[in-house]
Specification:
alpha+beta, 10% strand, four-stranded mixed β-sheet
């Protein structure tokens, strides 16, 4: 029997009846856990979380929006305070930090637009929805980080070649501490929410803010050097800040590039395969693909079933397979399950007619 079955359905905690269709992107839910992430997860973005951290698509976007606007307010106030001190002190190290804080605050705009677009329903033209807008926002963030690094480096080099004293050193030191406090709070908030909802762009933005916090502390060194009469301390710290920004640029660019190229954590693939192998009626797991669309995952998989199974039986196995995936894979909102009959010795491959089209 060469019956093949395609099945795609969503799963929502608010509906216990598992409706079956073709394109339902309602997400799968688990009760939130009280466990906090380990300290070692603070500095590196991950695409793999426990399934009990999954929110609905609407709730995820709403949380992302709240994180953006709250961090925008905090960073905006921080940058404004620092800008006042820059105007009276002339510190290029603090100027670089202020510019970077301002740029970080402004990244809320493209991310906010992306979250709003991501909530729109799929159309016949955008059949997967608008979740990819989040990845485009991530690219804008990377470009913003690059621009702030270039500006900070240019200003520091100019002051290095033309040293000038820094005035109001105590005010510069206080502004540096304010910058660190504001950025570290925003970094923790953005990274936590970004990981909870699976947003690589928001996590990258949080890492951006964390680096800003450390560069604010570096401004203290420049202020200390200036207080001791070493005029080159300020521009040298400015160059160090530029180097730090370049490092976070590398990390953010790598994370966003992987997301744009449909990269996923291999552990997610292993987890999905293991879940499928435990489904009754699944003999083998064939091709399995996972892809991020914004902060949500979709899956496509082929499973091998008994060749003598009826269409209805194959459908039941496909439903069970998708259900298992929705429970096992964090932030998976929909899966397309294709059931293939087990091969029979001497019988032609049912996919032979497709061979001349090639396969990726």
């Amino acid at each position: 029997m060469n019956d093949r079955h395609h099945h795609d359905h969503g799963h929502d905690r608010h509906h216990q009846d598992h409706g079956h269709g073709h394109h339902h992107d309602a997400p799968h839910h688990h009760p939130p856990s009280g466990l906090r992430r380990r300290l070692t997860h603070l500095l590196t973005p991950h695409s793999h979380e426990t399934a009990d951290k999954l929110d609905s698509a609407l709730e995820s976007s709403a949380r992302g929006m709240r994180a953006l606007w709250i961090s925008l307010a905090v960073l905006g106030a921080t940058a404004l305070a620092q800008a006042f001190v820059v105007a009276v002190s002339g510190s290029v190290a603090l100027l670089g930090d202020t510019v970077h804080n301002t740029a970080d605050a402004l990244t809320a705009v493209p991310l906010g637009i992306a979250f709003v677009l991501g909530r729109r329903a799929a159309t016949r033209r955008f059949t997967y929805g608008y979740g990819r807008a989040e990845d485009l926002a991530g690219i804008v963030i990377v470009l913003t980080i690059a621009a702030s690094a270039a500006f900070a480096g240019w200003v520091a080099m100019d002051r290095l070649l033309d040293p000038r004293p820094v005035e109001h050193v105590p005010a510069v030191a206080v502004a540096a501490l304010v910058g660190f406090a504001g950025n570290e709070w925003v970094a923790r908030y953005r990274i936590r929410v970004g990981r909870d909802i699976g947003s690589a762009a928001l996590v990258a933005d949080g890492l951006h803010a964390r680096t800003d916090g450390f560069t604010s502390l570096a401004v203290l060194l420049g202020a200390g050097g200036s207080a001791l009469g070493w005029q080159l301390a300020d521009p040298i710290v400015g160059l160090a800040i530029t180097a730090a920004i370049t490092l976070v640029l590398r990390d953010a660019a790598r994370e966003v590039f992987r997301r744009v190229m449909d990269a996923v954590d291999p552990a997610l693939v292993d987890r999905a395969e293991q879940a499928l192998r435990e489904v009754e009626g699944v003999r083998e797991v064939g091709e399995l693909r996972l892809r991020w669309i914004g902060h949500r995952l979709r899956a496509e998989v082929a499973v091998v079933v008994d060749g003598e199974a009826t269409v209805r039986q194959a459908h039941g196995i496909a439903v069970d397979a998708e259900h298992a995936l929705l429970h096992a894979v964090p932030r998976l909102t929909a899966a397309l399950v294709h059931a293939d009959p087990a091969p029979v010795p001497g019988e032609a491959d049912p996919h032979h007619a497709l061979a001349h089209h090639g396969s990726a």
